[in-house]
Amino acid sequence: MIISIILLAITAVISLFLTSTGLKRTAILFSILGTIITFFSVASITIKTMVWAVFSIFGSTLLYHSMLITDPLSTAFSAMMILFLIFSLGSLYKVGEADKAVLMVIATTGGMLMFSSNHFLLLFLGLEILSIPLYILANNGPHSFSQEASLKYMVMGAISSAFLLFGIAWVFAGTGSMELQGLNAATTIQSSDALSFIGGLFILIAILFKLGVAPFHSWIASVYQTSHHTVTSFMSSVVKIASMALLLRFVFHGISWYHQNWGLIFTALSALTMIIGHALALKEKNPKKILAYSSIAHVGYLLMPLCKLNPNSISVILIYISIYASASFITFLTVDAKNRMGKTFFVFGLLSLAGIPPFPGFFAKFLLFTVVLGYGQKSLLILAIIGSLIGSIYYAKLAYQKFTQEHQQEDHPYLIAGILGLIALLFGFFPDLFLLLLM
Amino acid sequence: MITFFIPFIISLFFFVIPISKKGSFFLALSGSIAIATSVLLTGLLDISYPWIPGLGLSFSLKISPISFLILQMASVMMFLMVLCLGPQSRVTYALSFLSLGAFNGVLMAENVLLFYVFWEMAIIPVFVLLMGFLDQNVDPKIGIRFLKYNIAGGLLILIALMTIYLQLSPFSSFNFQTIYQLSLPFNQQLYLLGALGISMAIKLPLFPFHRWQADTYAASPMMGTMMLAAILSKLGLYGIYRLILPLCSTVLFHYLPWILLSILLGSLYATFMTLQGDNLKKKLAYLSMAHMGLMSAGFLSGTVSGLQGAILMMVSHAVTTISLFWTVHRLTQYPSSEMSGLMRTNGLISAVTLTSILASLSFPLTSGFVGELLILSGLTATHGLLTVLALIPTIISAWFLLKWYHAVFLGPYSGHHILLRKSDYLASAFILLLIFLIGLFPNLILDLTQPSIMALIKGIK
User: Fold this and answer.
1) Helix, strand or coil for residue B147?
2) CB nearest A389 (choices: B118, B119, B152)
């Protein structure tokens, strides 16, 4: 795992150097190349961990004084993140904005570090490396309010980082350890429950802020609306995947004293997020904001399987978030499209987000709902289904709006959206391929 | 297999290749003939490929006698629709063939999830057709409402299917044959009946869930209206046959009198609605809703004659609906108040319209008669009093239809004349042929469907 992170960091540094010498296209090409190499290194690690798992020597391996964890969770989510990073970089090539590319690579490095760390300080470091480029990326959008949005995002992000540090301090006070495994081990003892519980809650709040879960969702709409569409599609895919992976890491490795209360917390959060996301989206007029609110609602769906501690939900969440990320990547990339091609891809993404059957979103939804129904969460499921009904209404409105606008000539082929759409469609028709890749 | 792919290939062809209006007209005609012949040639096929083995899903298609009949009906109706409406834009054809392909998929699907996939897929092209050709002065909310109702119905089926899916042992196939073997407890059947029943009631539509229908039929371009009325609404009946009857029969027969009563009252309401307003498309939409109520009563009655009558009436309803909407389509070029005495100049149109009206009123020797008679006899056998209720809509709709006919075709001549194309003669002859063929030789259909209906009813009881 460390090799992949280092590879990505080196890529970032060299492309930064290339950018500063003015070779913008070359810098982007180099960063794409480096990212592809990193992807293969992650893939090789995935194969290696699979081999280890077969011989059952290590379920998950701890490296570097048990600072980093290499297990299917970190490799699979890293691979998915890097895949979407490649698409983001590709979408930047036409514009030639190499500085954005460098920032995206740095942010992804931070993301990988964040959810493959076993140590809280490394986790904090990763989170900051992820966040700070995002503040800059959100800054130079085309919208006149983008600086304001970025500033708000930074202030709120700083507060959430403070929450994270505070939580880490509580956990350290409670357990005397800075490691996730240590927290895990120490919290099985009843006496230290209170301190660690409070610490865990604070850490959780910081993670939920990054993910945009309901009470901490307010930054998403303004940031997504004001940023450049390549940045927004990066945020809604790569950053979402990273934050979700961090949440899963924390839930499944950090809090082993998982009891009914945590399930209740996640159930409530999921319900609240779905309701708020869909309700705000239904009321909204601006297409980018509607998509931003719908992304909040989809995070609500993602939290549904966490109502029970069951490691099987990780794979379902991975499938759902990958398919969701592909759909939202396409829609955010083509949200300003004016030619027929771009509009078609936009509607494609919307149909996938809505979960209309032949599109990949449907299979993700079907899997997720079946798992949740299997956990016996009937009321949550009914809420989710009403939610997806509301969702399909505003997606239909968006599609209608898009197609009643005049078609214009535009010299933009939306190649990246098309390629991603085709891949997603392939997986939509043959979800078995995808399951095979994950196993 | 080829039957399944033809509509999609034709649709893709229309989307991709820019051909003239006339060329696409002929392509659409030959395409629908190709579907009909391929259904006829391949007959009762049965194929299965593994699709998602991890979830027990397979891509299996099967044509049973009943779906053979409905497939054949749909392709013939497609032919008739194209012939009636004349050259249209190629996007219209592309979308209608896409929808027809999904419809065929529902009828052929042997896997339950595949059934749902096609069920939802059939809605989208019609929605695009509706929204794409909406007039500036029509409220776009109508299209949104259409989508809202239909997606809600689809999601209800999804809930029902997921509850069934969780009952199966893991890795078992999610085919219809597997789920028919489940014996569900009463309580669960009740929920299933609720979810599936409401979703079918939206599709058909039946009384409390019909609000999308009249506006959609009125606002949609004629191709979309015919597609919905003649072809897609039959999905609701097929859903009753495929899901409700085999899965929740215990609960269904427990509450059957009440369900039938509410359906027939809904029919009565719909026929009363035909008497008010002056939008003919809306009136015909309500008429279609009344007939749908009667057909679903026949299906739900669970008797051999009821089911057979309903299937016969389904075919007849498709023909008469297309014919009546066709007449309305040709009249809409003139303000309705000015039209009268058309019989003097347009003998053919008036003859076809009168025949269709009589068929839609179940006049003896026309296609509607045997179907309605069988449904009524099925109802009499089980719930005698309800038969009376089922008869009233026919009388009221006769009032509306004959009054309309009188106003437009009889009476003083207003000097208008509807021009006929060459294809109109062919279409008229085809409609007359179908109406009398089914009316005189109903056994053509009844013999085909009888064995599978007997098997179904034996399975239920």
Assistant:
1) helix
2) B152
Q: How many CB contacts within 8 angstroms connect chain A with chain B?
A: 65
Domain limits, chain B:
1-246, 255-461
Residues of B in contact with A375 (CB under 8 A): none
B52 touches chain A (CB under 8 A): yes
Contact residues for B367 (Cβ-Cβ < 8 A; gap 6+): B312, B315, B316, B319, B320, B359, B434, B435, B436, B437, B438, B439
Tell me chain A's radius of gyration from C-alpha atoms.
21
**Of B429 and A179, the one with more pLDDT:** B429
- For A66: left if phi > 0, alpha if psi spans -120 to 50, otherwise beta; the answer is left
pLDDT range class, residue B359, cuts 50, 70, 90: very high
- Chain B residues with CB inside 8 Å of A396's CB? 127, 143-144, 147
> Would you state the pLDDT for residue B265?
92
Q: Which residues of chain B lie closer than 8 angstroms to A351, CB-CB?
A: 124
Domain count, chain A: 1
Mean predicted lDDT score pLDDT of chain A? 82
Q: What is the pLDDT of residue A55?
A: 47
A395: which residues sit within 8 A by CB, 6+ positions away?
Answer: A294, A350, A351, A353, A354
Identify the CA nearest to B160 among candidates B248, B59, B235, B237.
B248
**Domain presence at residue A370:** yes
Q: Which amino acid makes up residue B154? A: G
CB atoms within 10 A of CB B436: 15
Judge whether A262 lies within some domain.
Answer: yes
Q: Is B308 helix (H, G, I), strand (E, B) or coil?
A: helix
Cβ separation B131–A430 shorter than 8 A: no
A257 pLDDT above the threshold of 60: no
For residue A164, what pLDDT is reported?
92
Question: Rounded to an integer, what distance in angstroms lies between the CA atom of residue B9 and that of residue B7?
Answer: 5
Quote the ipTM score. Answer: 0.76
CA distance B152 to chain A (A): 6
In a domain, A14, yes or no: no
Summarised one tens digit per residue, pLDDT across range A12-65 is 888 888 888 878 788 888 888 888 888 888 877 766 665 555 444 445 566 666
Q: Among the residues of B63-122, which ranges form H helices?
A: 65-85, 90-108, 112-121
Mean pLDDT of all residues in A299-317: 84
Range of the domain at A333: 258-439
AA identity, residue B259: I
* Residues of chain B neighbouring A430 (CB-CB closer than 8 A): 51-52
pTM: 0.85
